[in-house]
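Researcher: Structure prediction, please.
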Amino acid sequence: MVASEAAPFAKTGGLADVLLALPRALVRLGHSVDVILPRYRGVPQGDRAGVVTVSDEGAARETRIDSVTSHGVRTLFVDHPAYFDRDQLYGPDGTDYPDNAARFAFLCRAALAWAHQGTPSYDLIHAHDWQAGLIPVLHRGPVVFTIHNLAYQGLFGAEWLSRIGLGRELLGMDALEFWGRISLLKGGIVFSRLVTTVSPRYAEEIQTEEFGCGFDGILRSRGADLVGILNGIDYDEWNPATDPYVGAPYDAAHLDGKRVAKRQLLDVLGLPSGERDLDRPLVGMVSRLVDQKGFDLMARSTDDLLRIDAGYVLLGSGDRRHEEEWRSLAAAHPGRIAVRIGFNEALAHQIEAGADLFLMPSRFEPCGLNQMYSLRYGTVPVVRAVGGLFDTVQDVDLPTGTGTGFTFHPYTPAALVETLRQAIRTYHDRDAWRRIQAAGMGLDLSWETSARKYVEVYERATI
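Model: Predicted structure follows.
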């Protein structure tokens, strides 16, 4: 597997979690997996695995490959400080480094140089997102390419073709050209044997104009080779019965520990934690603060959300305007709202355990992991029914007692606010709420099922 990030070494989002959990699940099924990624600043050097020679802007550069093995998965690091020893993975303050095309072309060439050395002999390469989009362009063997988020397309000026060692013949509609520029994501889509994305619903959505980000025609042309496989979650990392970050273990049959986790969370965030505060519903969010995740929708709903008798806790970072808005809300409502800008693994687990509801009003959502963490932790999700949210959260039907969360369809403030109000009304019906929690906690959201579907794709790609 070739990717730009993998937990615990480098992480900005869900891609890193997938590159941690999927390889481990494949190993448990009896397969051998290497993951290759850049050695960014702060990543441990590991053991020396070998040296490869990589062509870079006309020069041949010898590049060290280091390795770390854990849970049966070997992670290989491309050690090229000029490209990867930087403050950020992709660029400062939400911008891109101007040479990202060269940086990730180098990653792809180094990965292929390693693979072609023949030790071990790989059956296929699995490339992830635009940063690995040149793998199938440069490699004629079997490649499976996964789109984790179609909105990130690896777009660069056409002059980059020659700078990354590619010929002008690739500047065509049937190759990398995209509205006069080149797209490394398009390279992955067009040249791979099979293309996957991270939920069945998203695989359907991205073939439409609404969700296709300009690629819907390309994806429809590859519809027979496009497969949606739902991401899973790592049950070792995300388990309320064993989670080291949570004050008291609990499971579906013994939910008392969840109230202890709620008190712990309120205390950690400096919110009141008396009995009345514990009884009031607490809405959690762990997210990038960007429009895609619904923060523009929440900005248009602020007054109505504040009229609901609930507390809000938020962990994340993103667009400065959303960060400042939520900081201001926390300052104006210090007893009800707590905000932490940035990322903190322990606090992410504590929010999943301590919140009563988890809010994900995404404009679009390829898969989403936090709604699955929430289901696992008995934290009832309130989501917009798109992508992987549609595939994982069953809307509650109170008359029949079925459902695992609360969903809405229109991307409007009214739909968001009314659905959250309905969820909180149900929260006060303790028996109904326990049934919803138990239903969600009883789902199988592990990686084993998804990993088996990936094996089917790999077998199909290597025929």
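Model: The longest strand covers residues 59-70.
Researcher: Thanks, that helps.
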